[in-house]
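Title: Prediction job returns without error message
Component: structure pipeline
Severity: low
Priority: P3
Assignee: unassigned

Description:
Job completed but the reporter wants confirmation the result is attached to the right record. Sequence as submitted:
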Amino acid sequence: MALAFVTVVQYRERQWGVRMVRIMSTVVILAVQFSLGCAPPSKQAGGGTSSETEPQDETAEDESPLEEGLTWHRDIKPLMETHCVSCHQDGAIGTFSLDTLQSVSLVSEYVADAVEDRRMPPWKAVDGCDDYRDDLSLTQAEIDTIVQWVDEGMAEGSTDDAVDGAPLEVTGLERVDITLELPVAYTPDQEVNDDYRCFPVQWPLEDSAFVTGFVVNPDQTDLVHHVIAYLAPASYGEALLAEEAEDGRPGYPCYGGPGVIDQMDASWLGAWAPGAAQGNFPNGVGVQVDGDSWIILQMHYNMLGGGQGSDKTSVDFQVEDEAERVGWIQPFTNPSWLSGIGMEIPAQTDGVSHSYGLDLGMELVFHSANLHMHTLGRSAGMTVTSPDGEDDCLLQIDDWDFDWQRSYVCSEPKTIEAGSRWSIDCQWDNPTDQDVSWGDGTGDEMCLGSVLISLP
């Protein structure tokens, strides 16, 4: 069993005299505590209806005709640098590079097919739901440009016409106060494509404080697929260390969640995936962390990129004794599903849908949104319906992919009226011979939303 190693960087010697009323106990909606999410004006019906949405009009974004004689330097290079190269370059998680004409030419047919089918870039939020920061997606005009360039033979053009891309700016933190890293270097299991491993790390502060920023520093960028930091109460420390000792290896296996900790007690502190912008939480939000809490770092390692060796990823935090907005990451799902009631997904079925809605007892501000299912997921969405019946889409994903989960940060904070109905809807295809319901295991499923929330 490896004990956690914690580095406290630039820790200012001051009292964390934080006084905070436990909002969770006073907010009606907090009957369930889970993960994260947020979103926009919806085409869905609210309040527990099916997640059917109108098809997107992907041709309306830009009707201007494509110019002839497209070239790599002028037309394609800036698109690759803006939308693709953060993952597809040497040493990154992408299984091939897209940073040169030569590297793109080797996989040009795949690139054209992937962008035309909107599998790549992996931005799953549908258009027309809401506006989000750090949007990686391609417009229809940009997709058409890439496809036409490939069809025309991938002309290089002149370097005199070269245009640089504009990749998402990773601003980082204003200040790094605490750095947590994996207890010891971990070597992923090379016998599987995906290795999910959780590492418990004790929070180093004795008093409550507010985390206002979060940055993941992946050690092996060609192995680390995503990182989620779960927040666990101090009372779970003994159980976490016992689970870590179970198989004699660093950490413990986990899939779909933090494993040991009861989902009712778990919350998210932050998450990262390749290409995601990192830094301070939006709009001055700070998430309270009690003294002696545990941070569970869930690491998803993917071996398809050819990565080898061990990993010792670290996470930087900015911490304050108070926050402009006191926030929390609020999980949202049907409490009955947690007990195995009402979310049955029969064997050999397609398009099975389950939904849940809850009336909000007070005004809240939503800042970001996330959805979570497992591998049978087909689509998912969250909607808020105002007291006068107007639907506001928080987040809609129509082509669910378990390997591409992220939080979507609203371009502007979204104020939700008291009396609004918050709804979640999920659909699954179950081609297996086993009936499936809620659970943490590989063969189980979930329908879970989460939002970064604050009071007005």
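Comment from assignee: result matches the submitted record. The chain has six helices and 19 strands.
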